[in-house]
Amino acid sequence: MAGPRSDIDLVCYGPRGYEAAQALFAERSLIRPYEGESLTRLYLRRARYMAGSSFDMLLRQEARKLQGLTTGSGAHINCEPLRADGDRTFHDVVAQEVGQISVLARITDHRQGLATPASYGIEVETVIASTIDEAEAFARRITHLRSYLGAYTGAFREGDTVHLSGRLVHTQGRGGIRGFAIELTPWSATESYLASLAR
């Protein structure tokens, strides 16, 4: 049921849709960015599911997304960039779960992280927790973060250090993403998968 505090959720598809959404969100006569007191409200809104993030890091992460407040009513408006129908990034890629893992990792490539599902190149720096044996030695073989959660699309950039907690998967197939990855999915009722800027 729509009300005065309802959100406006938009979806854009592929690179052309993303460019159109960027232009829309840059138009200050329609959408204003979060700043001042509204930043605190945004933090409270996001902190519920971004546990562990500091105020500054969470807001830096959120500032990279296509979101803001409508100039008229002050309603929250955001855009979810999705991959185009013909996108083959994940075509014929199969992931087999190996276990669960929590790490600090450096983002090495964010070019495939701007649309959902997002894929980021990563290099693991520190293993925090894991359900697999000899996780530190194994961590050198983890090269990607795959996220099916829109909250992390477009949130990270090359050089960022992020805290990741998700499924450790082995990916195979003809697609360009092969090897070991940390995967964040909404398809678990028992686990909490998250990614947040660490520094």
What does this entry show, briefly?
With 199 residues, the chain is α+β, with helices and mostly antiparallel strands. 19% of the residues lie in helices and 39% in strands.
Helicity, as a percent range: 10-25%
Give the overall silhouette: globular
The average pLDDT value, as a whole number, equals: 87
Helical region count? 4
What is the string of SSEs from the N terminus onward?
A: EHEHHEEEEHEEEE
Structural class: alpha+beta
Oligomer: single chain
Describe the strand arrangement of the main beta sheet, using strand numbers. Answer: 5-6-7-9-8
| Number of strand segments | 10
Poorly predicted parts? none
The whole-angstrom Rg is: 17 Å
Q: Report the span from N to C terminus.
A: 39 Å
Q: How large is the share of residues in beta strands?
A: 35-45%
What composes the largest sheet? 5 strands, mixed, barrel
Q: Topology of this structure?
A:
Blueprint: E1 8-13, H1 14-26, E2 31-32, H2 37-47, H3 55-62, E3 67-70, E4 76-82, E5 93-109, E6 118-130, H4 135-139, E7 142-147, E8 161-173, E9 179-184, E10 194-197
Explain this structure to me?
It is a single chain. The chain has 199 residues and is of the alpha+beta class. It has helices spanning 14-26, 37-47, 55-62, 135-139; strands at 8-13, 31-32, 67-70, 76-82, 93-109, 118-130, 142-147, 161-173, 179-184, 194-197. It is globular and about 55 Å long.
Key terms:
alpha+beta; 19% helix; five-stranded mixed barrel; 4 helices; four-stranded mixed beta sheet; globular; 199 residues
